[in-house]
C-alpha cells in the first residue's frame, strides 16, 4: 500500500484531503447524527483495473440510514454513487482502497436538528487483517450488543460505534484481537465491526437478522457463495455455547473481509487452525471481489 490519499470529495466537490472541514459543534459530531458506509474497491491483478464491490447495496443501506435519521434534503443516490467513483479516480490508487462515505448534519443545533445535511467521501489505503491465514483470538465480551429498540443496529450510524469501540478496547486490554457481542438475551450477535459465522456439521450458520446485527453486505455475499458451493446455510438464533463446540468460526465484513477465528475465550476453535470451509469461502470471496472469476459481474462497478 504505497499510495496516499490526497483528494477528498466534500459535498460533491473534490478538495485537498486536509482541507475537509466540519465545525466541532456540528450536530453530526455533537449528537452523533451521522450515517456512513465502508466500501472497498479491489484491483484485478490481470487488468490492473479497480472495481467497487457491491456499491449499489451499500448505497441502498445508506438510504435506509438517512431515512431513519429523518435527514432534510439528503444527497441523492446518484450524487453519492458519483462521489464514490470520483473519490477513487481523483486519487488514482495503484492498489486496493477502502472508501468511507459519510452523511452527517453540518449545522449547529440540538438533538432534533435534521439539517443542513452534508457528506464526504474518502478513498484511503487500508491494510488487510494480518490474521487472514492464521486466525483471530476472540472473547465473548461482557458488553452486550446494542439493542434494536435502543439504537437500531441495522442502521450504520456513527453513534452505534461507541458500543463497538468500548468492547474492542476492553478485548484488546485483555489480550484478545476483538470481541464477540451477545444480544441482551444472551444469543450470539456479531463482532464489533464484522458479522460472525459458525460451521457445524458442514452447515454454514450465522445469527439471524433479528439478532441485533448490522445487515451486512459481506454476510449476504458469504451466504450466496456458500449456497453456490452447495454448502447448507442457516440464518438463525445462535447460542453462546455453540461458539465453543463449533467446527469452524469466521468473521466477515467489508473492512475485515473474511478472517478465520482460531480461539474464543482461549478455547481453540476446532483444532485451532483455520478450517477447510472457512478457507474455501475466503478463496471464493477473494475471487469475486477482485473479479478473477466472471461470476457475479453485477457486484463489481468499474471505476
Ligand atoms: C458492526 C458491524 N457489523 C458488521 C459489519 C459488516 O458489514 P458489511 O459487510 O456491510 O461491511 C460492519 C462493517 O463492516 C460493522 O461495522
From TrEMBL:
Record has Transferase as a keyword: yes
Transferase found in the keyword field: yes
Alphabetical list of Gene3D superfamilies matching this protein: 3.30.470.10, D-amino Acid Aminotransferase, subunit A, domain 2
Function, as annotated: Acts on leucine, isoleucine and valine.
Record protein name field: Branched-chain-amino-acid aminotransferase
Name of the gene this protein is made from: ilvE
Domain of life: Bacteria
Family from the record: Belongs to the class-IV pyridoxal-phosphate-dependent aminotransferase family.
Keyword list, A-Z: Amino-acid biosynthesis, Aminotransferase, Branched-chain amino acid biosynthesis, Pyridoxal phosphate, Transferase
Chemical reaction(s) catalysed: L-valine + 2-oxoglutarate = 3-methyl-2-oxobutanoate + L-glutamate; L-leucine + 2-oxoglutarate = 4-methyl-2-oxopentanoate + L-glutamate; L-isoleucine + 2-oxoglutarate = (S)-3-methyl-2-oxopentanoate + L-glutamate
Enzyme Commission number: 2.6.1.42
SUPFAM superfamilies for this protein: D-aminoacid aminotransferase-like PLP-dependent enzymes (SSF56752)
Co-factor requirement: pyridoxal 5'-phosphate
Pathway of action: Amino-acid biosynthesis; L-valine biosynthesis; L-valine from pyruvate: step 4/4; Amino-acid biosynthesis; L-isoleucine biosynthesis; L-isoleucine from 2-oxobutanoate: step 4/4; Amino-acid biosynthesis; L-leucine biosynthesis; L-leucine from 3-methyl-2-oxobutanoate: step 4/4
GO molecular function annotation: branched-chain-amino-acid transaminase activity
Amino acid at each position: 500500500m504505497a499510495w496516499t490519499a490526497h483528494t477528498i470529495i466534500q459535498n460533491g466537490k473534490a478538495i485537498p484531503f486536509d482541507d475537509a472541514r466540519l465545525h466541532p459543534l456540528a450536530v453530526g459530531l455533537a449528537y452523533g447524527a451521522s450515517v456512513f458506509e465502508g466500501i472497498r474497491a479491489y484491483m484485478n491483478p490481470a487488468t490492473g483495473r479497480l472495481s467497487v464491490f457491491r456499491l449499489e447495496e451499500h448505497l441502498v443501506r445508506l438510504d435506509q440510514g438517512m431515512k431513519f435519521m429523518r435527514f432534510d434534503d439528503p444527497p441523492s443516490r446518484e450524487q453519492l454513487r458519483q462521489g464514490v467513483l470520483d473519490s477513487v479516480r481523483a486519487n488514482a490508487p495503484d492498489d486496493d482502497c477502502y472508501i468511507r462515505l459519510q452523511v452527517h448534519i453540518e449545522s449547529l443545533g440540538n438533538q432534533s436538528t435534521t439539517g443542513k445535511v452534508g457528506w464526504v467521501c474518502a478513498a484511503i489505503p487500508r491494510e488487510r487483517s494480518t490474521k487472514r491465514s492464521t486466525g483471530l483470538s476472540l472473547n465473548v465480551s461482557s458488553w452486550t450488543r446494542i439493542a434494536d429498540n435502543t439504537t437500531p443496529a441495522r442502521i450504520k450510524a456513527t453513534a452505534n460505534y461507541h458500543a463497538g469501540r468500548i468492547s474492542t478496547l476492553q478485548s484488546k486490554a485483555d489480550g484478545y484481537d476483538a470481541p464477540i457481542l451477545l444480544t441482551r438475551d444472551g444469543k450470539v450477535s456479531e463482532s464489533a465491526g464484522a458479522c460472525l459465522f459458525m460451521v457445524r456439521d458442514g452447515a454454514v450458520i450465522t445469527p439471524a437478522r433479528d439478532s441485533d446485527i448490522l445487515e451486512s453486505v459481506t454476510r449476504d455475499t458469504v451466504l450466496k457463495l456458500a449456497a453456490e458451493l452447495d454448502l447448507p446455510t442457516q440464518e438463525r438464533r445462535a447460542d453462546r455455547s455453540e461458539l465453543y463446540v463449533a467446527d469452524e468460526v469466521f468473521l466477515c465484513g467489508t473492512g475485515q473481509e473474511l478472517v478465520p477465528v482460531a480461539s474464543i475465550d482461549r478455547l481453540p476453535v476446532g483444532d485451532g487452525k483455520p478450517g477447510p470451509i472457512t478457507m474455501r469461502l475466503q478463496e471464493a470471496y477473494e475471487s469475486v471481489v477482485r473479479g478473477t472469476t466472471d461470476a457475479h459481474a453485477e457486484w463489481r462497478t468499474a471505476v
